[in-house]
Amino acid sequence: MIDPADLEHCKASIRTGSYSFHAASRLLPGRVRDPALALYAFCRLTDDAVDLTHEKTEAVLMLGERLDAIYRGQPRNTPTDRAFAAVVEDFEMPRTLPEALLEGMAWDAMEKRYHTLSDVYAYSARVAAAVGVMMTVLMRVRCPHALARACDLGVAMQLTNIARDVGEDARARRIYLPLDWLAQAGIDIEAFFDNPRPTREIRKLTRRLIADANRLYFRSEPGVAALPFACRPGIFAARNIYGGIGREVARRHYDSINTRAYTTKGQKIGWLIQSTLETLVVSVMPRSAVLYGKPLPECAYLVEAAAERLPSDNPWGEGRAGELIAVLAQLEAKRRQAQPVAALVEERKRAI
């Protein structure tokens, strides 16, 4: 159980640092909302520790030590670490998931750039999809199909963030757009950093990223119906709020340099109401086949880490290794059965 004082600290940090999540979390049931606040507080701490310091490498290494202490059951004596340690223990949170988030932060500390859209997906898998999978675990859902769609939603949200922050990132000499897109558009990165302008080419790339995010938002929606009924409005709200940010970018003609898209309190309230109605609709609709689509390849390891392990019919073990051992065992049994017959044949030959 999370200590109430630690939980209050987490709530305060989310309330002032993540308006979109704070709004969406209001629609989650308490049994999910409280551990989710602890989770997001830890994720926010991780993000800020890297973004708000010049010693990014030291910050990442320190976070690695804190995460290691949490999984040893000896968290640092801070409200955020104690609260997240309680979540890890209560929900048996696979370590791969927060470690993926930490790896994404390490990539930021290294100022890594991404050559292809797949590379951007790989980054988004770590800093966003991993959080979506952890949220699904908090709902006590380990279905691989639901987890795959949670990854779609996380990646879509991160693509929206990247599209919204093109100008802000450029002024900090950061770039998250795929480098091959920039090369195809004839954009010199250093020249763009020196003078960020919403040129036609940059706006086209921003539009392309928003379009891909919208595709993934669509893929994610059937996964919401696989979640507990009480959890669905909160997840729809998160999807609608971030989708709304993307629409604001589009409304500004994909200029994320001169202005930064944001949503108003009134819009958020409207999306919260819409999310409740969508929950009622999906509850009576037949399940979409999109639910069963494969996860993005860049997210597959997150799904594998969190998915429920079903009992195996193979006594030799699971996966390809178990299958091979089973085949070899069958050959060995066949050889042993054949030995008495062969001996009998030799005996008959000698008798003749």
TrEMBL record:
The keyword Transferase applies. One of its GO terms (biological process) is carotenoid biosynthetic process. Keywords: Carotenoid biosynthesis, Manganese, Transferase. GO terms for molecular function: geranylgeranyl diphosphate synthase activity; squalene synthase [NAD(P)H] activity. CDD domains: Trans_IPPS_HH (cd00683). SUPFAM superfamilies: Terpenoid synthases (SSF48576). Pathway: Carotenoid biosynthesis; phytoene biosynthesis. PROSITE patterns: SQUALEN_PHYTOEN_SYN_1, SQUALEN_PHYTOEN_SYN_2. Belongs to the phytoene/squalene synthase family. This is Phytoene synthase. It comes from Rhodovulum adriaticum (Rhodopseudomonas adriatica).
